[in-house]
Amino acid sequence: MSPSKVSTISWDSFHNTVDGQARNSKSKHRGINPATGEELWEVPIGNQQDIDDAVKSAQNAFETWSQTPLEKRKETITKFRDHYMSFADELIDLMCQETGKPRQFATYEVKGAAGFFDHHLALDIPEERIEDDEKVLLTRFTPLGVVGAICPWNFPIILCLGKVIPALLTGNTIIVKPSPYTPYTTLKIVELAQEIFAPGVVQAVGGDDKLGPMLTTHPGVAKISFTGSIATGKKVMAAAAGTLKRVTLELGGNDASIVLPDVDIKKVAPELVMGAFQNSGQVCVATKRIYIHEDIYDEMLKEMVAFTKTIKVGDPSSGSLLGPIQNKMQYEKVKTFFEDSKSHGYKFAVGEPEVSGSKGYFVQPTIIDNPPNDSRIIQEEPFGPIVPTQPWSDEEEVIKRANNTNAGLGACVWGKDVERAERIGKRLQAGSVFVNSWEKPTPQAIFGGHKESGIGGEWGTEGLKSYCNAHVLHTYKSNCNIYVSASPAHAAKDCGECDTGRYHRTQHTWLISVEPHKHHMPFVPQNKLEPTHFSANWKDDGYHVHTHSTGGVIGTILVKEGAKGDVEHIQQVLQAALKPTSANKSSDQTPDDEHDRWVKKGLHALQTDKITDTFDLSEFMTFAHGYFANRLDSDAPARIAYPGLHKDHKEKSSKHHFWLTYPTKAPNGAEPGSRTYGGLM
Ligand code: NAD
After folding, report:
1. Rounded Cα gap, residues 340 and 524, in angstroms
2. At what angle do helices 70-86 and 158-169 cross, to 10 degrees?
3. Distance CA 3, CA 649 (A)
4. Is 188 helix (H, G, I), strand (E, B) or coil?
5. Which of the following is catalytic: 90, 191, 250, 452?
6. Three-state SS string across 370-435, please?
7. Among 284, 412, 468, 480, which one carries the catalytic annotation?
8. Could you read off the pLDDT of 403-458 as tens digits, one per residue?
9. Which atom of ligand 1 lies nearest, measured to the CA of 155?
10. CA-CA distance, 442 to 459, in Å (whole number)?
């Protein structure tokens, strides 16, 4: 233990964690070190009571954790990351024992998890804001509640933290159920987390396969994030249907790798082999079928065989490249692929038909040369170091062959002609396609399967959403918003086309409008100048002026060249002017003429601060009233609106023309739709 570490963690006893406390059980089981066949430490077998207690605690913790601001949650997760990393050496030792992985790969997994932390900590939870004249739509992504994480044994840390980190970041609480084959690292990581998080935020209940169904059927669990086999995934989805839980299913794959004829054979051969045999083939996105162009088939296979013969298989500290199969059940399953290939007389390009017995569950990497399409080794996922190769000649045909599977997790295409490789890649039915690389999932992008390889996905910004509900707030605007728009783009030159030169002085144009949103305002021109708009919305203590989207501009005043016309300054001046007096209230409680007063206050403030040229405010208001009364085309009392000035893109090529548009009849008797130059200077 490094001197900076302060912890009571012991590394030779293991327990579940419920409500911040160690939880043991009368029933115990032991994992097996797959490199030696020796039993490891006892671990408790959790039961229904443990799950019920954990769900209750997680629900309580959710109340606070979900309401903790994102930045604060990130701070806490960062502490957890650092705490976790300070125990990297202990976790590497433990992982070597529970998985048998070669030490360098155990190190890669333990330390690689830091990248998962860091990537997620840099993300923000997506949010989308859409605004029109009538309303603001705010789409946020809010946490679901209690997440159940059901994990497999092949990457016990990455596939556990790959769920824990995004679930916590988005404000959920989580109960982790490790695979019965690899409980040790998970239980310790969750134990470490108790020194950082409040009880119930992160818990672990391990045991046997009965625990999974307890989580998938529990009414207090909002979501199951499951990684495992297709067969179990189907059971998870069926069980979750009872309570309509959200599910993310990360399931098995049968990845095809297509090799184009132009590749550098010597360079690509070892890569193809590692794509298939990484982690002894126990990778959901390992390459499981290799299609090599017929022109290079023999040579490529020869190189692959030569490289495979150099691969050392052995225990974690032997300097080997591959370790054992992680457990006896899987070891026996992998052997059936050898037996099947042998009994059908398929050609073993490298590797022996008989898997020789040893204390550990070791299997030599094996390539089956051109078995038929309907062979088991082509059709099914062995999840061990045995892979088939087949030749191809026709692009369309090999794409069909690659896609001819119920799985769709990953795929690879190799070729110097990257355009061709990408073109083929785009047609492969898989969640992640790799061009000129074997499968290397990354937290930067969503990871998920097509077809029976899964439902949904995790990681990347999109993956965060899988831990969230979409929550849309539709806020209708109050009766009267004040818009002030700045159009620096209109720092006009003399355009020469326009008969109202006053609009083309070297000035900035600031547009001010009042929008009575109660009314439909079809006439409001869309301002295409991309001005900076401000809207002033009522809050408890007065109008708060903030920047606003484009559109809906119906008035103008001109800002002096060189005046204090910066956006922030104008915002401040308006906000100060619109502070409440005892008389004003929020707009929906305010008589119409109050709106005038606020607008006048805003305009006066701009004038007083010399932001605008002098102009006759009362004339402006009279015109606005008259205009608005006409617009309503009814006897209803006039509300304020200011003349609409907008750029007419269709009819005028000049950048500097602004028009008033009269939708009904104009004060001067003009017909609806007719236009006149507008302006109040
Ligand atoms: P598995 O399906 O046997 O077990 C996965 C987990 O499910 C374990 O924790 C197990 O205890 C639990 N479980 C078992 N029965 C359950 C039930 N009825 N309800 C709920 N949970 C249950 O898978 P495995 O053997 O641990 O893992 C290997 C498989 O996982 C392979 O097929 C591999 O391709 C796949 N996998 C997929 C990904 C991916 O991200 N897509 C990653 C790794 C592994």
Report:
1. 74
2. 160
3. 70
4. helix
5. 250
6. CCCCCCHHHHCCCCCCEEEEEEECCHHHHHHHHHCCCCCCEEEEECCCHHHHHHHHHCCCCCEEEE
7. 284
8. 999 999 999 999 999 999 999 999 999 999 999 999 999 999 999 999 999 999 99
9. 43
10. 8
How many A from CA of 429 to the centre of ligand 1?
22
**Closest Cα partner for 281 from 326, 317, 245, 217?**
326
Non-local CB neighbours of 231 within 8 Å, separated by 6+ positions: none
At 427, the amino acid letter reads R
Distance CA 681, CA 679 (A): 6
Tell me the two tokens of residue 217: 């059927």
Name which of 438, 453, 418, 112 is nearest 252 in CA terms: 453
Is the CB of residue 477 less than 8 Å from the CB of residue 134?
A: yes
237 Cα: distance to centroid of ligand 1 (angstroms) = 13
Give the residue from 10, 28, 186, 17 showing the smallest Cα distance to 98. 186
Question: Alpha helix (H) ranges present in 194-327?
Answer: 211-217, 230-241, 265-277, 297-310
Segment (H or E) for 536? strand 532-539
What is the per-residue pLDDT for 526? 30
In 100-157, where does DSSP find H-type helix? 103-121
Within 6 A (CB) of ligand 1 lie 150-154, 159, 177, 179-180, 209, 212-213, 216, 227-229, 232, 235-236, 250-253, 284, 381, 383, 409, 449, 454
Across 397-531, the runs of DSSP E, i.e. the strands, are: 410-414, 432-435, 454-455, 468-476, 480-487, 508-516
Tokens at 602, concatenated = 């805003």
Phi-psi group of 345: left, alpha or beta (phi > 0 → left; psi -120 to 50 → alpha; rest → beta): left
Can you give the pLDDT at residue 577?
A: 76
Question: What does 38-93 look like in DSSP terms, one character per residue?
Answer: EEEEEEE---HHHHHHHHHHHHHHHHHHTTS-HHHHHHHHHHHHHHHHHTHHHHHH
Query: Could you tell me the pTM of the whole model?
Result: 0.75
Residue to probe by mutation, ligand 1, list 161, 209, 215, most atoms within 8 Å of CB: 209
Phi, psi (degrees; rounded to nearest 5) at 594: -60, -35
184 Cβ contact partners less than 8 Å away, ≥ 6 residues apart: 14, 31, 40, 41, 43, 94, 97, 98, 156
Annotation marks residue 284 as catalytic: yes
Q: How many CB atoms lie within 10 A of CB 500?
A: 14
Across the strands, what pairs with 534? 484, 547
- Listed as ranges, residues in the chain with pLDDT below 50 are 1-4, 478-533, 548-565, 582-592, 623-624, 626-681
Q: What single letter denotes the amino acid at residue 30? A: R
Distance CA 681, CA 372 (A): 85
**DSSP category for residue 634:** S
Nearest CA-CA partner of 469 in 19, 242, 77, 147: 147
Q: What is the DSSP letter of 280?
A: G
pLDDT of residue 129: 79
Q: 267 CA to middle of ligand 1, Å?
A: 34
**What does the alpha-carbon distance between residue 481 and residue 640 come to, in Å, rounded to a whole number?**
11
What is the spatial distance between Cα 502 and Cα 424, in angstroms, rounded to a whole number? 61
